[in-house]
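Revision sheet: structure tokens.
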Amino acid sequence: MQKTKLAAEELAEMIRDGLAEEGHEVQVHPNPETGWHVAITSANNAEDAGIRAEAIASGLRQSYDLET
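Predicted:
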């Protein structure tokens, strides 16, 4: 199945929306093993937000590739 290619900012926005709270900086970077990975910086509980962001990213990787 061909995955839809999205820009890093589009993927980051989808992850931010999935976190459903303010105060998180989300970035998406290429990763040769997984296609792309998410990096998150949070003003409050970064560890919890990072775990949730990775769970969201894992689901998104099923449908989306990073546009290069």
